[in-house]
Design a protein that fits this description.
globular, mainly beta
Length: 112
């Protein structure tokens, strides 16, 4: 049974930073395409970043140069490092494995 558990969300001021974690069980993250997605109120879920089994990363244009996706193979955890956060980054952030398995989400709120 695959389980993805996100953590690390919270409330920060604009310009602040957060690191999200996705702890995986039942799947080996280094062998899968792992991704972070987000959904803001009233909007559709959108891709934020992905990392493939070959370490290829992709980012939404809106987060390039501010967010970094990475993984710790030993701990089987995927991270999303977020810097220079903006109010428009406010959303529920979801971890995904192969866009088939999903976590429960973690709230990120950027507000002054």
């Amino acid at each position: 049974q695959v389980q993805l558990v996100e953590s690390g969300g919270g409330s920060v001021q604009p310009g602040g930073s957060l690191r999200l974690s996705c702890a995986a069980s039942g799947i080996i993250v280094r062998l899968a395409t792992m991704g972070w997605y987000r959904q803001a109120p009233g909007k559709e879920r959108e891709l934020v970043a992905t990392i493939s089994s070959g370490d290829t990363t992709t980012y939404a244009d809106s987060v390039k140069d501010r967010f970094t996706i990475s993984r710790d193979n030993a701990k089987n955890i995927v991270y999303l490092e977020m810097k220079s956060l903006k109010p428009e980054d406010t959303a529920v952030y979801y971890c995904s494995a192969q866009t088939y398995y999903w976590g429960q989400g973690t709230q990120v709120t950027v507000s002054s």
